[in-house]
Amino acid sequence: MKKIFTVLLVVSLSVLLFGCTEYHAKGAGAGGLLGGVAGALLDSKNPWRGGIIGAAIGGIAGATLTDISMQASREAAASGQPVEYRTTDGRGVYRADPVSVDEQTRCKKVRERVWEDDRLIKDQVKEVCEGEKFERTY
Asked: pLDDT tens digits, residue range 50-59?
């Protein structure tokens, strides 16, 4: 059991450190922190086990939510159309609406809103910038 746990921990840390962008790492970190605390509090017999399991699940959930947010905001900025994702049970809704374009920087602003059980829990404006690649060639 300890060997399996060690392998899972190493794989999870590797994915978090090397397989993510800065934003994914922040989402995974926040989710891992909250999940770890909740798991430690819920597992009264062995809080370390609960904390580690909660941190792993929270980290994965945080990185996934960040990925959905990034994908939807880029899609809304590129298409100029609203993008909406819903959970299968209909309790959670994520919506990205294009707002404006900064002609100087060519960055697009997207308004992100998240509802849970018909209650708005997140409302922010995010800037989506697409970089241009310049290469020196001889």
From this structure: 888 888 887 7
